[in-house]
Amino acid sequence: MDCYKDFAHIYDELIKGDIDYKKWADTILIFCDEYKVQRKDYLDLACGTGNITENIAKSFLNTWAVDLSYDMLTEAEGKLRDSGIKGKFICQDISSLNLNRKFDLITCCLDSTNYIVEKEKLHEYFKGVYNHLKDGGIFVFDINSYYKITQILGNNIYNYDSEDVYYIWENNLEEDIVDMYLTFFIKQGKVYKRFDEFHRERAYTNKEIQESAIACGFQIAKLLDNYESKALREDTERIAYVLKK
């Protein structure tokens, strides 16, 4: 099953209302002001359909976006072009960055870091981001917390039903890794088209994330509960990090 292929074209419709991308982007831009980050070169990792990219790119001179899915990149490029924003879109693995350029701000939002399921590659990911940051630059990313993956997503079944879309989402958790099997039925005229997706995420503890980042040279500047200025709790579902070089 391909990841984010047919799904790319209905992604925005399905998550509409779930994430306040503008609010997240505004929060990240506040961090840029707080840490005196120049608004020149911006890189968005695992950009998806470009929702965060678009909102932040408006405040930067140059924008680059990376994703492993050509279909997602196509959606993102069209979205930014429609908004009058020029950007460079690169198909690349975020754990093996090679862009020959450095950035003032790098982001990786909506738990894309959890998709790095090999712990060795997590270290390569942080090292790659560190090497692509300018001195004084910041890296802002978030993860699905260990609690969310093991206690909420793991071994559960979800479904969604609307006039045009129906899907079943089945999860299987084993040794901190959740396998997610999604079956979609999309209305096309009088018939429904079926396609399947497979996604896999690793549950990382906050300690594991911080230790790996620090080992690569980062300073931990902030930890946030879902991009909010409040203390982390045992049942925090999304942890956002601000790392400084």
From TrEMBL:
Its EC number is 2.1.1.234. Keywords: Methyltransferase, Transferase. The keyword Transferase applies. One of its GO terms (biological process) is methylation. The keyword Methyltransferase applies. It is an enzyme of class 2 (transferase). SUPFAM superfamilies: S-adenosyl-L-methionine-dependent methyltransferases. It holds the Pfam family Methyltransf_25. This is dTDP-3-amino-3,4, 6-trideoxy-alpha-D-glucopyranose.
